[in-house]
Amino acid sequence: MLYVALFGFVLWVLCFADAITTDEDEVRNLSKDGWLVVVLLLPIVGSILWLVAGRPQKYPGERLPEDPEEAEFVRRCRERAEEQRRENRRRPQE
After folding, report:
1. Nearest CA to 50 among 31, 66, 74, 76?
2. What pLDDT is stored for residue 32 in this prediction?
3. pLDDT digit string, tens, across residues 1-34
4. Which residue ranges does UniProt annotate as crossing the membrane (predicted)?
5. Under a CB-based contact definition with an 8 Å cutoff, are residues 19 and 50 in contact?
6. What is the C-alpha to C-alpha distance for residues 14 and 88, in angstroms, rounded to an integer?
7. Vertex 37 angle, CA 20 and 57, to 5°
8. Helix or strand or coil: residue 7?
9. What pTM does this model have?
10. How far apart are CA 75 and CA 64, in angstroms?
């Protein structure tokens, strides 16, 4: 039972510290202050909610490759994909 309580406390401290150090514009679904209150008042549930719904998502595809030619290729592919998405939104659905 002591291990469960220790795990819960460590989880709560880590999630609270993560919520404090996260930039305001990266927080999802609530304001940063809202998440701090949720994690503070509901330690276990709030910590789990922070991990699932509040913590910023890091997308592995956001970074460009180090090789300049490859980075340019990836950038052009992303621009083309975005252009195709916009065209599909403008076209009426059949």
Report:
1. 31
2. 92
3. 899 999 999 999 999 999 999 988 888 899 999 9
4. 35-53
5. yes
6. 43
7. 50
8. helix
9. 0.60
10. 8
Tokens 């460590």 belong to residue: 10
Whole-angstrom Cα Rg for the chain: 20
pLDDT at 92: 65
Report whether 71 contacts 65 (CB < 8 A).
yes
Q: Which residue type, as a one-letter code, is found at position 7?
A: F
Cα–Cα distance list, 51 to 29, 59, 87 (Å) = 12, 15, 36
Q: State the DSSP code for 93.
A: P
Maximum distance among all Cα pairs of the chain, rounded to whole angstroms: 61
Complete DSSP assignment for 20-87:
HHS-GGG--SS-HHHHHHHHHHSHHHHHHHIIIIISPP--GGGSPPSSHHHHHHHHHHHHHHHHHHHH
Distance CA 34, CA 54 (A): 10
